[in-house]
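[AMINO ACID CHAIN]
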Amino acid sequence: MLGRYTHVLFDLDGTIFNTEYAYTSALYDVLKAERPDTEETYESLTRFMGSTAENTRIELNLPFEDTKRLSDAWVERVKLYEDSIKPFDGIMAVIKYLHEHNVKLGIVTSRAKTYQNVLGEIASPLPTLLKPYFKYSISASEVDNPKPAPDSILRYMELTGAKKDEILFIGDTMSDVECAHSAGVDFGLAVWGSRIKRSIQCAHYFLNPWDIIKTIYVRDDLNYQWYRWAKEIQAIGQIGLTYCTNVFDIERFERLREISCEIISTMTESPIEKVRDVICMDKGYITPKIDTRAAVFNEKGQILLVKEAKNGLWSLPGGWCDESESIISNTVKEVREEAGMLVKPVKFVGLIDKSKWNKSSQPFHILASFTICLEGDGEFSPNTETLERRFFDIDEVSDEILRLGTTTTEQIRMCAEAFNTANWVPVID
């Protein structure tokens, strides 16, 4: 697996931790006490998420001489809402995954060390929960000009030697966007915590923390330029054969498909007859294929895998979506056929681009769906497709035992996170 970025920087508030309610409620309480006739509301004050205390004071036109008194009052109010501050669903699992796969992680935050002695963890630029995964945390206190200025990211680059094109900064506010743009690094918007209401220009939009993984990583074999050319040539040939009637054009488009077969056969050392059978089985306008996968969980939170007969490797039960089936009905059908179990679908995990997640030599574009299902009745019998079914603990599953063309450990972890998250946002490529 090749990393698109080797350094990932995170904002804290609104990106890793859901602090909006605590911070904004405390600010509203203080402002209301100072100015009972204020027209500011909770909603309007959310614009200060990601701002420093000093910038907030200036914009609200609060007197300089009252800075310490008002800040202390805000701190006391935050303590009342401390129980509402928690990591966003899925973010810690993604951070742990990135750390385990040697991505260098850093924090760029508007938090200042001033309040850490009073508020403790909820004001720390590097909370205890994150210390196992993050080596560097750049707070507003450590630079001359905090966000939206680029100083914090430039400071991280100075400490680590990271280059601009190696860094992805993930945040939720316009202050984060401007910081990344000024520093010349790619920015990913954490949509799950953002209140930005207008279109902004950034490299990535993350609806769910799990979107981060497939953005950072690309699979080796699906990103060779020759492979892309071969697939494009195959698509041009197939589309041409669908619509053309001129005999000479037909010959040209047939030759394009043959060239595509020859390229893939040569580069993968596969028999050309086998490649031709796979490529030429499609008719009509070329579109992505749909692969449906079931993440079946039992009462212990274990996940069901099936051992494939053709290679002895384990996989989530699933397969191509038949023409007469929907994604959900096909998922149920595949589990019944491969695992001998009648399951109940309960949650859609996502629809992903397999070229970004899986190691596969398939010569066409594949979209894979994942659906959470609950364990059901049924007896298993070995068959032509599968030799065994078994429930695994999530932590005992590794890439070494999996057929990576269909199932990877990150996909299994993503499904487990979806299973355990009440308000899951599907991952959509």
In short: The longest helix spans residues 247-268. The mean pLDDT is 86.
